[in-house]
Amino acid sequence: MRRFAFLPLAVIVAACSAPQAPQPEKQPKPQAAASAPANATLGSHEWYQWVDRRLQVSDDEAHGPDYGSAEWNAAVQRKLGQEAPRAQPGSPEWQQAVDALLRTRVQ
Fold first, then answer.
1. Domain map of the chain by residue range?
2. Residue 59's pLDDT is what?
């Protein structure tokens, strides 16, 4: 009879020590890609508008530097901070790096 008294305890210990399946981590989904222009050509007016909205270069009334100007490119660099591309601001390489960064950035 005494042996059976330990049986429930053994079942509990075995259940607690059984390996459990890892739980998937809940990570926020990047929203940048969803709001990004699907086929906007880098350097196009649509692309500049998208970057401007993402980084809030212009104010709510669209007052800000002209898209693609040296002043606008410098503002984008400042907004990106340490993530800013090292390529010449405004160059095709710079635009490609900005695009890739903003499409993968969680906002």
1. 36-107
2. 83
